[in-house]
TrEMBL record:
GO molecular function ontology, one term from the record: nucleotide binding
InterPro entries: Gfo/Idh/MocA-like_OxRdtase_N (IPR000683), Gfo/Idh/MocA_oxidrdct_glycsds (IPR050463), GFO_IDH_MocA-like_dom (IPR055170), NAD(P)-bd_dom_sf (IPR036291)
Gene (name only): TTHV082
Domain of life of the native organism: Bacteria
Keyword terms: Oxidoreductase, Plasmid
Organism, scientific name: Thermus thermophilus (strain ATCC 27634 / DSM 579 / HB8)
Protein's UniProt name: Oxidoreductase domain-containing protein
Length: 345
């Protein structure tokens, strides 16, 4: 399988490239318009630097796109229209409209397309998914993704904080895609309505630093929080789900090593007790590997397997577009100051 890496930043270098290489794919080339890092990344894998995206597409079977959000859909659409499979970073795009256009094109062309929703390959989250039936009827949920990558008010603002790179979503797109997908996955039903408030907390940013959200899935309500300015390290992504029989709490390993993920169970009433992580879910991965690479080894395995079998992987592009619909609803709710239904995909 010939892979083209699109983007040459830290994430492409430390996660995308080694995950695909480790899975046995051939890294054919790197396209990263204007990036001085493209050559070093290509040389590390005996690949070629392409200055023309169309030429790269002529020489690969699939692309892995790790660029600023604004470029996701244009790059993916061009690949899909040429019959190339797509492994795409989240969020899918800058709007639900453009994300839907990509999904429609991918489904019409019959290509394999995956959204890199990292929680789906987390050791703790997968363990929690296996035991979620213990909850009984779900009655409430709460979760948060708290990160510090823009916690310094005086630091230069990267592309994620600019409309030209990260669009209007800011933290809602960057971190919300993970939290919204994790929540819907563990609940077993989509988020259907939100009441949200977003805020830019420091000068110089052009999109939200923080969001507080009340969300409904079916008849169940819960609270979610997103922050890219949380002052305390390490970053944390967690979700608690309450049922009429007890509660689950999952702490994902999105900092440090993969083995630092944790799952807890409480009776109703009771106290948090740790659950053993299922070793069968490692699927040959090393739990002492750093977060990101550990997760992507499994995502890439699923992606390549789906291409081999001619089926869609999990999480697919569709799951990414479902998360995009929640992102859009949160932004609209905050803008209009009222509840917003999440559009179906």
């Amino acid at each position: 399988m010939r892979i083209g890496l699109v983007g040459a930043g830290w994430w492409a270098r430390e996660v995308h490239a080694p995950a695909f290489h480790g899975a046995g794919a051939q890294i054919q080339g790197v396209y990263a318009q204007g990036s001085p890092r493209a050559r070093a990344l290509a040389e590390a894998y005996g690949a070629k630097v392409y200055e023309d995206y169309g030429e790269l597409l002529e020489n690969v079977d699939a692309v892995a796109i790790a660029t600023p959000d604004a470029a996701h859909v244009p790059l993916a659409l061009e690949a899909v229209r040429r019959g190339r499979h797509v492994f795409l970073e989240k969020p899918v795009g800058l709007s639900l409209e453009e994300a839907r256009s990509l999904l429609q094109e991918a489904e019409a062309r019959g290509v394999v397309a995956m959204t890199a929703l990292t929680a789906r390959a987390d050791w703790g989250a997968e363990t929690a998914f296996q035991v979620r039936e213990r909850l009984g009827e779900v009655v409430a949920f709460r979760g948060a993704f708290l990160a510090d990558y823009l916690a310094d008010p005086q630091a230069p603002v990267p592309w994620r904080g600019r409309l030209a790179g990260g669009g209007r979503a800011g933290v809602v797109g960057d971190l919300g895609a993970h939290l919204f997908d994790l929540t819907a996955w563990l609940l077993g039903k989509p988020l259907e309505e939100v009441i949200a408030r977003t805020e830019i907390l420091f000068l110089g940013r052009e999109n939200p630093d923080w969001a507080g959200i009340l969300a409904r899935a079916g008849q169940t309500w819960g609270s979610l929080e997103l922050s890219r300015v949380h002052p305390v390290r390490p970053q944390r992504l967690y979700l608690e789900v309450e049922g009429d029989r007890g509660a689950l709490r999952v702490l994902l390993a999105l900092a440090g090593r993969a083995e630092e993920a944790a799952v807890f169970w409480s009776e109703r009433p009771g106290a948090w007790e740790p659950l053993l992580l299922d070793p069968g879910l490692l699927r040959g991965r090393n739990p002492r590997e750093p977060w990101g690479l550990f997760h992507f080894r499994e995502l890439v395995r699923r992606f390549l397997r789906a291409i081999e079998l001619g089926e869609q992987p999990v999480p697919s592009l569709r799951e990414g577009v479902v998360a995009q619909a929640v992102i859009e609803a949160v932004l609209e709710s905050s803008l209009e100051g009222k509840a917003q239904e999440v559009e179906g995909v």
